[in-house]
Design brief:
Length: 159
């Protein structure tokens, strides 16, 4: 039976000891979907939405990258990781903005949380920058799409 990795023998919160783990290539890709609706999408020019605050998607990419690099400051039991790469892409489909965050490192622990935090903060930034146009914005999902390295790889079927 599986046990939760962030609990010690007494059931108290505990950072996982990765001291004996082997360094390996770790990657993760997470996705957040932001339902913007037609009121906001009518402002899409080319591949971005321009607002008084600036270009929405470009700003969200920067915010998501900054957040991925600081995941250990936000999630209490995450290890501090030096990321080798963080790539955030934002595409549109209908009236949705689709945020993908791909993160990689050479390390003893995975980068799933960094990818999830990067995608989430990018999605929240899109919300923040577009709320003046409409509050009818929904971040519909944030999920891990795939990861490699560590004990086992994972890949979600594409939706």
């Amino acid at each position: 039976m599986s046990t939760l990795s962030h609990l010690d023998a007494q059931g108290n919160p505990s950072m996982v000891d990765v001291g004996q783990k082997t360094v390996s290539r770790r990657t993760a890709r997470a996705r957040s979907v932001v339902a913007l609706g037609p009121d906001i999408m009518q402002h899409l020019t080319g591949t971005d939405i321009q607002t008084r605050k600036g270009p929405v998607f470009q700003t969200a990419i920067i915010a998501g990258t900054m957040a991925a690099k600081r995941t250990d400051d936000l999630i209490p039991l995450c290890h501090s990781l030096g990321l080798d790469n963080c790539q955030i892409t934002i595409t549109t489909s209908g009236s949705d903005a689709i945020v993908d965050c791909l993160v990689s490192t050479e390390g003893k622990t995975g980068v799933e949380m960094e990818a999830l935090v990067g995608a989430s903060v990018a999605a929240l930034t899109i919300y923040d920058m577009c709320k003046a146009l409409s509050h009818d914005i929904i971040i519909t999902e944030t999920k891990l799409m795939e990861k490699t390295g560590g004990k086992r790889d994972f890949k979600r079927d594409q939706d």
